[in-house]
Amino acid sequence: MNIGEVIKDRRQKRNLTQAELAGLLNVTPQAVSRWEVGVSFPDITMIPELSEVLKVTADELFGIGLTCGQVGVVLHQSQVDGIFDFVPGGATGKSRRILIVDDSAFMRKTLEDILTHHGHTVLQAENGRECLEVLRKETVDLCLLDIVMPVMSGIDALRVIREEQPQLRVVMLSAMSQEDNVRLALQLGADAFVVKPFQESSLIERIG
């Protein structure tokens, strides 16, 4: 399911009309309707509120399932930063070509809006295989890489990226922030790890 389908499914299960859900979220009924048919997406900052109102996890909204046997405690951003020895220092303001790799159209659109607002040029791929195809054809400065994707996972793509383009900066961007995932990403050469859902400032800081 995409995010609009999840919203519609959970709204109906809670016996809410589009107008009632809109009232709880302080948006217009038209906005809810557009989300559900896939014309537009809710803002990333609304994810926690949507999760609370619809009684659904952020992972489910993003279309992430624990299909790989991943269990364990999900780490918060500060805990992940500790593993990566990351010290926030603010953004450099330098414009970059950034490849977004995520199977969620909602997430790709959200990231594109944030990154272009900060002056970056954006390319997109829907899975690890597409990511590698783009990197072999295009020059990019940084890759934002989800973990759980069809066809090829972000972890498998990261392994290949480090073989083919060891100097490319790679930032993992995933809700799958169990400690094993975070440490594996670090061992494979990821430069940073951003936990979904995220604050815009958190993302921009880790792009550097």
The biggest sheet, with number of strands, parallel, antiparallel or mixed sense and barrel status, is: 5 strands, parallel
Put simply, the count of helices is 11
* C-alpha-based Rg, rounded: 17 Å
* End-to-end C-alpha gap: 33 Å
Q: How would you write the strand order of the largest sheet?
A: 2-1-3-4-5
Shape: globular
Helix content: 40-55%
The low-confidence parts are 65-71
- SSE succession: HHHHHHEHEHEHEHEH
Mean pLDDT: 87
Q: Per DSSP, what share of the residues sits in E-state strands of 2 or more residues?
A: 5-15%
Structural class: alpha/beta
Count every beta strand, where a strand is a DSSP E run of 2 or more residues: 5
Structural overview:
The two termini are 33 Å apart. This protein has a five-stranded parallel sheet with strand order 2-1-3-4-5, sandwiched between helices. It is globular, with a radius of gyration of 17 Å. By secondary structure, the chain is α/β, with parallel strands linked by helices. It has helices at 3-13, 18-25, 29-37, 47-54, 58-61, 77-84, 105-117, 128-137, 154-164, 179-187, 200-207; strands at 97-101, 121-125, 142-145, 169-174, 192-195. Residues 65-71 have low confidence and may be disordered. Helix 1 crosses helix 3, helix 2 crosses helix 3 (29-37) and helix 8 (128-137) runs parallel beside helix 9. Strand 3 (142-145), helix 9 and strand 4 (169-174) form a beta-alpha-beta unit.
